[in-house]
Design brief:
Layout (H helix, E strand, L loop, with lengths): L16 E3 L39 E2 L2 E9 L3 E7 L8 E7 L5 H15 L9 E7 L4 E7 L3 E3 L11 H20 L12 E4 L1 H4 L5
């Protein structure tokens, strides 16, 4: 589901939590970042040197690369455009199939299948998994989150006690949802929980 108000658990305050790392219990060390924007616009980031041949406008599988969002130990995260649904906010985590070890690649595949089964308004949904043999990359397609990590809100005066309580309620509901399905979030911290910008823009909080 897209990171927007008006559906499910997000109705009451316009907030949305987005986990950046959700793992199956058997996945020992998998990390798939949830694409996000910096507050007030995406920040240009450094590209993973192993994938520095990637450029905006390139097409991987059916997706057009728009802008890099992040780089990590497993690859790069890009905002992308899906020609089959151009208005949909999409991003893709790209894993270098040449450099990545087989166990890491398999963990990403497992995580994609797990995320695809988790239909919850506070969890970033997975929309697909592809392998581009020409560029030797594996792509995990998820919803692009235009928001900020909770850690960046702590000094914001708008992040008052009511919003903090409501955020904790949403977080507890999301954790209960995945735990009931025997899935463990293995890196839960403030920077791995995102809220979209309308969370602070709402004038009234239920």
């Amino acid at each position: 589901m897209p990171p927007a108000c008006g559906t499910g658990h997000g109705d009451r305050c316009g907030s949305r939590l987005h986990f950046r790392r959700i793992l199956h219990p058997d996945a020992r060390d998998c990390s798939v970042d949830s694409p996000r924007a910096e507050p007030h616009g995406a920040r240009e980031c450094c590209l993973d040197p192993r994938m520095d041949h990637l450029r905006p406008g390139m097409r991987l599988d059916r997706y057009e690369l728009v802008a890099p969002l992040a780089a990590g130990g497993q690859g790069s995260v890009w905002r992308v455009r899906d020609p089959l649904d151009p208005a949909a906010p999409r991003a893709v985590k790209l894993v270098d199939l040449v450099q990545a070890n087989p166990d890491g690649i398999e963990r990403v595949r497992r995580e994609a299948h797990q995320l695809a089964q988790l239909q919850h308004p506070s969890i970033v949904p997975c929309h697909g998994l592809f392998e581009d043999v020409n560029e030797s990359v594996l792509g995990l397609v998820v919803t692009y989150v235009d928001g900020m990590p909770v850690g960046g809100l702590l000094s914001d005066p708008r992040f008052d006690a009511r919003r903090r309580r409501l955020l904790l309620k949403h977080l507890a509901e999301a954790l209960a949802f995945i735990h009931a399905r025997k899935i463990v979030h293995r890196d839960l911290k403030l920077d791995n929980v995102l809220v979209d910008d309308r969370f602070l823009a709402e004038l009234e909080v239920a």
